[in-house]
Amino acid sequence: MTSSGFGASNNRNSSNYRSHDTSGTSQRPIAPFTMILKSRIKQPQFYWFLGHFFTLYHFLKFHLSFFSIASQKYHYRMILLNISITYGIVLYQFLKSGQLKLTWSNIRENVRTLDNLQYFIMLSTLFICSILSGGKVSITGASYAPVIFSIFHCLNYFKENLLPFLPISPQLKSVLNRRITLFLANYNEKFLTMAQTFEIMCALRVGLFGLPMTLLKIIFNFHWNNLLSLIVIANYVIFFKLRLLQSESMKLLLNQVILRVDNYLLASPNMMQFQPFWLRYKQLVARLYDLVPPSLNTIAKTQSTPKKSNHI
């Protein structure tokens, strides 16, 4: 999993956390769990973990709140808040360690190259606009990819930092450790593809349908919430372009989606008549895509700049 900081592939600080064996074969004494917990709460990583944990909690509560719009609005905001906090903690760690320096002169370059900053801006903008609109402005599906990342980050942190010290039998620790390790290894790439698919579908929906509809609403019936909707949609479209320019796997996935539509129109005699329309539509979308900042020329100037690691 490639996003949001102290992730499943984070090995830089692993020596701090892997001093105890969960296989049940080690005979070294293990510190009491309460003592370990007291030491963990002094570390930013612990609150990063809590942010991901509460993201998953509110995500479940959001989808279980079938009959309460007010409850759904609350849990939606809490999802955005908690996941924004996790990215904020990672950025804070970057700043504290000197890996990241934010100034007015380099902020645009950092936004183009640092995906943690991209996610933080996108999610915090959604959170602020949701509050300002009383929960009436949102983008359905925008949080799905970060929630998927949260699953893996939670499991990895639990396995490395909490499981070895839980007051349970060594055999149970070994079983849990093995199952979590297998899950992380076997499903990381599959869930990453799922997350990218959610981002592609969300961007296509808000960019091709939500954006023109919102512009029409602003022109014919200006309202504060319509302006906020335009802000969050533009925010997500720009975010998606940045992700697409940085991720070769996302480009490949998007091209596969387009190719499937092409093949469907060619294979179905009844759909052949729509092929010219589809070709013109793709050309229009490509031209509109080029208008979305940042420009390709600007990106090319920064491609030689080493990308900062997402993991601390």
From TrEMBL:
Subcellular location: Membrane
Keyword list, A-Z: Membrane, Transmembrane, Transmembrane helix
Annotated region (Disordered), positions in chain: 1-26
Main localization, broad class: membrane
Source organism superkingdom: Eukaryota
Keyword Transmembrane helix in record: yes
GO cellular component: endoplasmic reticulum; membrane; nuclear envelope
Family the entry assigns: Belongs to the PER33/POM33 family.
Name listed for the protein in its UniProt record: Nucleoporin POM33
Organism: Naumovozyma castellii (Yeast)
Annotated gene: NCAS0J00370
